[in-house]
Amino acid sequence: MTDAEKQRMFQLVTDESDSDVIKAYLDVAKGRIMTRAYPFVADLSMLSFPARYDDLHVRLAVDMWAKRGAEGQSSHNENGVSRTYEPQSRLLAEVIPYVGFSDPED
User: Fold this and answer.
1) CA pair distance 102, 83, nearest whole angstrom
2) Domain range summary for the chain, segments of one domain joined by +
């Protein structure tokens, strides 16, 4: 999936129209996935993003976007309305860490 396709999917799911906002959330999500997938690699820019995580990439970005303004909260109660948020670690648990130093996409 190309970056443009991910941005379009994000836009369709969230109805967000600001391309800079969309790109920012996708960039942060990508960083979290790459850090989880390659925990022992210091320079992640040398590696390509694993295509197997394209769907997760968009889902994680949408999850972060949906929780904006509630950063750090695991639950919220106000006027009798109670919200509980799923931790991002549940999404990131789908990432299988690589322990080698070579790019698995090669």
Assistant:
1) 42
2) 3-92
